From TrEMBL:
Matches recorded under Pfam families: TatC
Reported function: Part of the twin-arginine translocation (Tat) system that transports large folded proteins containing a characteristic twin-arginine motif in their signal peptide across membranes. Together with TatB, TatC is part of a receptor directly interacting with Tat signal peptides.
Similarity remark: Belongs to the TatC family.
Source organism: Arthrobacter echini
Membrane association type: Multi-pass membrane protein
Gene Ontology terms: cellular component: TAT protein transport complex
Location in the cell: Cell membrane; Membrane
Protein name: Sec-independent protein translocase protein TatC
Single GO BP term: protein transport by the Tat complex
Membrane-spanning intervals of the chain: 12-32, 67-92, 104-126, 153-176, 188-206, 212-232
Signal peptide (UniProt feature, chain positions): none
Subunit structure: The Tat system comprises two distinct complexes: a TatABC complex, containing multiple copies of TatA, TatB and TatC subunits, and a separate TatA complex, containing only TatA subunits. Substrates initially bind to the TatABC complex, which probably triggers association of the separate TatA complex to form the active translocon.
Amino acid sequence: MALKEHLREARNRLFISAIAVILGTVGGFFLYNPVQRALASPIIAIDEKEGRTASLNFATAASPFDLLIQVSVFLGVIISSPVWLYQIWAFITPGLKSKERRTALAFIAVAVPLFLAGIGLAWLILPNAVRVLTEFTPEDFSNLIDVSVYFTFVLRLMLAFGIAFLLPVLLVGLNMVGLVSGKQILKAWRITVFLVSLFAAMAAPGGDALSMFYLAVPLLLLFFVAIGLCLLNDRRRARRAHAREAAVEAGADTASSLEAL
């Protein structure tokens, strides 16, 4: 497509994704109270179970409303993830053929659970991460945390984990449409490890080593699984190409035999 058509398609897909996120945000508004209590539970547990003073505080009169919008939008992104993930993939592979459409559907079928799994992993490590980080508080000091700062930390952590879990799926998808080979990825495994570690260090909110470790380890495992799948797909593609060449040669030999007769 021409550049103008690409830009028009990008605009349309962004518009569809934005509508999906807005509708998801409306749904997130109704889920705000239980989700807000669940995300605040690690701080409440520190105060109630460990005997250390810890609480979340609103710094301004508008902070409760800002928090409502922030959490609702976050929930909207999660709820609408099947829509915007498909729009991203469909934009990357325009003019999909029937086989590639099946690949796109497989991408969504895998990407959405992995995105949610990344968020789930972040949720599992959140209490431990909060507990470890607040243990550095000196004696006779209290953790009176601004609620906006805390929820920004939590939501960034979950989004970072969710998006990070999508990267290996994107890698496999690009391999399936022939844009990158498994051998090319495998040759650059050292660079891959470095980039994953760098991404984990940048994405982990607060810059603590604990969050970086929890993000980097499963992400590296997923990347190497993705490399294995790419190599298997390359081998399957090579077998099919060899079979096609053999069929063409057999057809040519048969034609030559007929001509000789």
